[in-house]
Write a structure and sequence with these properties.
globular; 8-stranded mixed beta sheet; 8 strands; alpha/beta
């Protein structure tokens, strides 16, 4: 981020999968990073993860001054956040843990620093409840993996200031993210709720014997998923309507869509269904390794993100 936005050093608190991905991304943007995690061996795992992500980030294009040498690991949480301009927290998804963690960060961080949580489901109003300065506490929820996927959901709690929201949005945008402001706290925020709606029906179709796990994955990956990777659901509907746009689609298909909604399933995560889906994934995976799939996915994501940016038309 440019000095005009006031962020030169980011503290990353919690360096698991999400925290390590954030760390690599911040470093690639030319920022200094103070990282901390109390888990044994955390520093070694973090540096390995950053090294693993770095070639992909180099292909994206590094910002001026970007270097893995700008990473500092701290055993002390207070030391890590004490000189940070922005804090990105990635700790366990437990409200009691988050409240205490943010209380400590709030007490140690500079008064102008934003404290952001990567929480995927917790309400930021609860997280900020133990802080002396809750106005600077926000949710900055990335989409995995953060070093590749641009989306960040920004949400304020009951006591978050409008200034903190504005500064957070500006920071993420300045480092190449696509932040959206979620205007009201809801479970799972936006993207995870949309995913959950699809997962719900996917699990239902497996449970009902409509299709195999592999065929459901094929239906999305080689069907609507290709369009969704280019544009969102409303813009795709708009283009489906030709010259009449989305108004034409809703006039002619609004009724059938509503009828489909009423027929969607509501499965329960029973042991039998979990086993059925796990077995289906294993069969679909075959001899391929997870690391192999991740590498192929990341390459395609990189190419897609570049291609979208190059059109000058697609958001």
């Amino acid at each position: 981020m440019s000095a005009a936005h006031g962020v030169r050093r980011v503290a990353v608190v919690g360096t698991g999968v999400i925290g390590a991905s954030w760390t690599a991304y911040f470093l690639a943007q030319g920022l200094d990073v103070n990282a901390t995690d109390p888990s044994p061996g955390a520093e070694e795992r973090l540096r390995q993860a950053v090294a693993q992500h770095w070639p992909t980030l180099e292909r994206f294009g590094l910002a001026a001054g970007a270097s893995v040498d700008r990473l500092r690991f701290h055993d002390s949480l207070e030391d890590a956040v004490s000189v940070a301009d922005f804090v990105q927290e990635n700790g366990p998804e437990r409200m009691d843990f988050k409240i205490e963690l943010f209380r400590r960060m709030d007490a140690a961080a500079p008064p102008d620093a934003i404290l952001a949580s990567s929480s995927s489901g917790l309400a930021i109003s609860g997280v900020q409840s133990g802080c002396a300065h809750p106005d600077r506490v926000v949710l900055g929820h990335p989409f995995n993996p953060p070093h590749l996927i641009p989306l960040v959901e920004v949400i304020g709690g009951e006591l978050t200031s409008a200034d903190a929201i504005e500064r957070t949005m500006a920071f993420y945008a300045a480092i190449g993210k696509r932040p959206i402001h979620v205007k009201r706290e809801v479970k799972g925020h936006i993207a995870n709720r949309l995913q959950a709606a699809l997962w719900r029906e996917a699990f239902h179709l497996v449970e009902q014997g409509v299709a195999s796990v592999a065929d459901i994955d094929t239906a999305i990956a080689h069907g609507p998923g290709l369009r969704w990777a280019v544009m969102g659901p409303f813009m795709n509907l708009h283009l489906s309507g030709g010259a009449g746009g989305i108004a034409h689609v809703l006039a002619h298909l609004g009724g059938p869509i509503e009828d489909w909604w009423r027929d969607l399933g509501a499965p329960s995560m029973t042991p039998a269904l979990k086993a059925q889906v796990s077995e289906g994934v294993a069969q679909e995976l075959g001899a391929r390794r997870t690391a192999e799939l991740e590498a192929a996915r990341d390459t395609l994501l990189l190419n897609l993100i570049r291609a979208k940016a190059g059109t000058g038309t697609l958001d």
